[in-house]
Specification:
InterPro entries: HAD-like_sf, HAD-SF_hydro_IIIA, HAD_sf, Heptose_bisP_phosphatase, Histidinol-phos, PNK3P. Its main location: cytoplasm. Belongs to the gmhB family. This protein is an alpha/beta fold and 173 residues long. It has one domain: 3-Layer(aba) Sandwich (Rossmann fold), CATH 3.40.50.1000. Helix content is 34%, strand content 18%. It is built from 7 helices and 6 strands. It has a 6-stranded parallel beta sheet with strand order 3-2-1-4-5-6, sandwiched between helices. The longest helix has 17 residues. The chain is globular and about 40 Å long.
Length: 173
Amino acid sequence: MNVAFFDRDGTIIEDYEDHVWTGVKEPVFIKGAIETLDHIQKQGYSIMIITNQYLINEGYISYEQYEAINSSMLHVLKEHNISIQEVFYCPHRRDEGCRCIKPNIGMIEQALTSYPEIRLDHSFIVGDSKADVDLATRLGVRGYGIRITNEQPNVTLIDTISDLQFVINKNDK
């Protein structure tokens, strides 16, 4: 299984300053995100979301609020015939020292445990933070950083999520 691992906040849906998340009730999709996910899916990739949600344990949002936003996002994607294989999230505070908060590899390990057929050498990670591209580098997989600079040869800088449609095609697998 070839997987496109996407960050959620700032990559698929809008991200906000931590304190602003407290009032967020519905996801707002980033321009081009739905079309890009559709394109990636049509290229034969399974889509998984890996998202740091330290906001939960740091007290900015409740688990129920996270679930409501996530469920709403998945519902909209399903309406567009986009299938998300699974969402892996890390609820831990940034200072908890867990294995799952990106750039640690815990969420990818969870994915590999649940889906041992994942071929990391034919998969990639997309995100808008240093943690996302650092995770790609730690795993030795292709990474696409949205407005994130990184000197690693496995990471490609893109300006918007839509740019991914021009760099990912069936020949990349």
